[in-house]
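Example record

One chain of 555 residues, shown exactly as stored in the release files.
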Amino acid sequence: MRFHRAILVLAVFLVPACAVEKPGPDVVASFEGGTVSLETVEQRMRQTAEGIEQADRKLLVEAYRDQAKKIVVEQALLHRAAVADEAELPLDRIRRDVILELFKAEHISAPDPISRQMIETFFEEHEQDFHRQPRRFVWHIFRRHLDPTHPERTVAELATIREKALAGHGFAQLAQEYSHSETRLMGGRLGWIYRTKLPPSIEDVVFSLAKDEISPPVEVPGGTAIFMVSEVVPETRLALHDVRIPIHQRLVSDAWRKRIADLVGESETPEDSVVLDEDAFQEATRQAMAGDVLLSIADYQITAGNFFEIMTDARSEFPGLPFFEPNPWQIYQDLVMDQLLYFHAVRAGFPDEPDAAAEIEKRVKLATDAAVIDLRIEAALRQEVAENSDAVEAFFDTNGFLYQTPLRFKLRSLSLPVGDDVDQSTARIRSIREAIEAGTIELATAATEIGADLVDLGWHNVTTLNQLSPKLSHYVLGIEPGGTTIPFQLNHRLNIIQVEERQEPQPRPLAEVEDQVRDDYLERHKQKLYSEFEADLLHDVGFRFHEEAVLLALR
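Predicted structure tokens for this chain:
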């Protein structure tokens, strides 16, 4: 977790507050370390795009107060002892980003202004990108047919479970106890579901439910399920006036991209560079392991793991609206262009120019201070969580199902080539499976008799099964020990998978997962924890806001 903030040159007069009997008219706040000037607060408000021209007077005073608090918190944190993570600050990346920012400002002319007509034309051409499909946050409890000849028994089981839920039993807890789906580990959570993501018969049921409504039992492949909707987002179609600013920002970004591409387009790429075209990029991001290199130019490198972190940070604040969804290929191209531009700047000697070097050092110091402040806030909040064991234990008691051991399977497979006659091969392997299910032959014996490969697949959980093939988890999840999957094709071979052993999820004690629980608690409550931390720190340093100085300045 990081609290990102912009740090500008803080014109904080480090005059001991006790030495000033009455603050001057330009002092907005004071604390034990000094005072904060009106100019500093207004610089910050301009930098963070907080309007100070037309705001309501009362709200404007509060905006000054909030910015003064932030400045004092930052100053106080910079005077605290260093925390361990500061030794690993990405100083090279910070310097690189500063050089890029300055080089762009000095060597790339600003694009032409974006006109109203350009914005309106873009909206007309991309109107569907501002249309959000309806969606539902869905939970379910699935019961497979233990006796496929009597599906009505499964329906009756689900009806009883549904009655418990309607009587007030928590749906997530019922899913943990009764569901046969791997989603029971998450209390039956399916997550956000859009139209076309489910079979039509199930989709119609889900989208007919109101918030917190539970469906009657529904027939699904292999069993029966009940569904519950906890959040409903209706269809949304934004109007032009809703998106003028985002469109303007997009068009400005596109114009800057073109300027950068024009500058570096003819530049030579260093030897041994790794820059993927779109097809290679799409293939790599589908199959890459975390350590695989997606981009390498000079001493700059982005692995698949790095890129996935970047994509996570870029997640949309408006999920479901295509315009606001991050575009992985565009983000990758921006990384390439930035690094080529940086390489161009270094080769041209820009960082060594006297004026540039001085400004670089100044901005690197500010950016480093910002990173240090983030780390010290995080360390303080983690310490607060560590000391609040009762709250962490209560969080674990409520969410313990998230920390169970995973559902695991020990598997082996019988596999043979499809051959020239697919129907004959399929019929053959089906008869083998029927004999195995009837108990008249063992899997190993069957493999020997028909000349098939017998492969010990070892232990797997749902995640590793999906990595091998999404088909595997679909076929395996409902099978008890000794059972086999229906025959299926994979990599031009016919396969049967047998579940040798099955380990159901088991609760884990807090001591085994305490670090993860603390991280999750912090993520869930970080805004509240930060507010409490800020209030305590400001109290400790004797923060005082001088409202009269602000009111005088606003006359």
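Notes: The radius of gyration is 30 Å.
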